[in-house]
Structures are given as C-alpha cells and as structure tokens.
Amino acid sequence: MHTGYQRGIEIRKKDNEQELCCNIEGFAWREVQGEASHQLVADLRRELGKVFVGQEPLVDGVLTAIAAGGHVLVEALPGLGKTLLVKAIGKILGLRTNRIQFTPDLMPSDVVGTYVAQVGADGRPMMTLQQGPLFANVVLADEINRTPPKTQAALLEAMQERRVTVQGRTYELDAPFFVFATQNPIELEGTYPLPEAQLDRFMLEVMLDYLPEEDEVSVVKSTTSLPPSAVQPVVSKEEILAFQRVVRRLPIADAVTRYAVKLVRMTRPGDAATPNASPDFIKQWVAYGASVRAAQALVLGAKARALLQGRTSPSFEDVRALARPVLRHRVLINFQAQSEKVTTDSLIGKLLDAVPLPKSAL
After folding, report:
1. Rounded to whole angstroms, what are the CA distances from 314 to 2, 133, 307, 344?
2. Is 117 helix (H, G, I), strand (E, B) or coil?
C-alpha cells in the first residue's frame, strides 16, 4: 500500500470519534497537503493506466466524484471499456466491490437481499438476512437500464441515504459507498429509461467516446499480447473518508457558490420564484430544469476538483468545467429540442455563454 498520501492526511482517534488531521490549522493549508493530493492523483492515474488508455476528461470526472463522495453514471457505446473502467476503480480503491448485472428478470430482493429461514445454535428456527450485492463499498450497476423500474427503485434509498430497508428493518451501509452505473445509449430494445428521481441521485454523468487512433492502437496491442500487470490498491478506506471530509471543509467564495446556484436556476423554464430569469432558448427547448441537488453537486465537485489539482479554493472555472457532467442528466429537453437536433450538451454550452461571470472574476 502506498504511504505517500498518508504523510498528508492522517486519521487519529479522539473522544471515541475519528478526527481529521490534515496538516492544516483551521483552513490554513500547508504545502505538504497539496503535494499529498498530487501524489494521490498520480498514483491513481498510474494504476488506472495499466488497463485503461486515454479518456482524460472521463477519468477526471470519476476521480472528482470519488473525492466528493458521489455516484457516477457512465454512458458509452458497446465495447469502449465502461465496465472495465469501473472494475479497475474498485480494485484501485481497495474497497469491497460487488457487480450487479441488471437484467429484465432481476428482482429487488436480488439487489438488497432477503430473509431466509435457518436453524440457530439452539436448534430453533430463525430468520437471517442474506445480504444482497448492494452491501458493498463500490457497487457496479452494469447496464442499469435493462431492469424494470421496480428493481431500479431498490437503489434509491441506498444512493441517497446510504442505507437499505428490508422487510421493515433498516441497515446502514458501510462508508464510503459508491454506485457506478453503466448504460448503452443506442440500444432501446429491452431497456427501461431511468426515472428522473434516480438520475438525480447520480452526481455526474460521464461519457466515453471513441479513442484517438494512437490510443486505440495501444489498446489493441496491450489486449492481444500477454495480460497486463494487475492493478494494485493505492489508497485505503480511511484515506478516502478523510479526503472526502477535507473536500467538505474546503472554503469556497460566496460568489462561486452563487454562480453555481444561478447556473442551475437558469435551467428551469417554469421557476415560479424567478419566472423571467431563464433565457428564451431554455423556455423554448427545456421541459424540466435541474434540482437543488445539481447546485450541491456543482459546489462539491468544484471543491473536489480544486483539491485534486492541489488548489485550496474552488474557482468559477471549476464550476464551469463540471457543468456538463452535473447537468446533462438532470435537464430534460422537450420534443421541439429533439426535433431540432438540440442536444443537452450543446444546450448547456449555450447556457454557459449566456450566464456571465461576476465582474470580480473577469
């Protein structure tokens, strides 16, 4: 296990609770903290590079979500490595990882678990919870849109509250808890679109695209010769939890927070509080805008992105860089937009151009 990052973040026990010791006094960060963050990111990228080539924006998004404690929806065409990416992330983090292959006949009990009758030590019958694959730190929900909505709904409580309820009994899930889901955007036969309530629980939706030619040549060479060396864990559970607490304690300027909130509010064509705030193209092309969770994700993501880059304060550019992965699955375009071939990504780009930065940022 790599220990370079442990020099920057340590965990110690105090008053029966874990206290964060981050080489900081209040929010006055020391240089070693930035060095530790850079070392952690470098180690994660090195191990991930053993099995995954290129796709820097996607890798950045996944690492940002991990640092912020959010869930990720990965969308890509078949054969581009979305499942490979998520499996590698689970191994690199050194966490308990379970994979759920979502199929049309999957039941909620296959996800969360069910009670089974067993004979106790005293010879009397008893009901025992047989835990489902959701009881893990990293859950790979493979082809999540291939299962009916009632099974998809089994993830709602876990993703939001980090707990599950089985036959009236509630069980807390072990922290950290991540759901990495994959889906294929082109196959509609036998699929069930994710409901908006579930989409909203994903912090980011990241896209996998075709590789540049040289990267594709590298992939073909590496996968048609001897197997590459296995990825190794480079960070512990305690370090991940510590990093997530640092992200939440990171200060952010009020102007940056207000900018993130303004971006989200401008996506709502029917916002009763500010009915005339949205641009005309939003009113023309958007059926429903983003929720408050989107603003929370933008701020948390900006903090995580800044920390991963060794900076002590999130900027407007961090918010803008995360606008597409945070908003693309939360903004629902209408039929007119679809008929005019307006994509959600192009709409978000137009929104970024329409929402001016504060004068202090110029």
Report:
1. 27, 36, 8, 25
2. strand
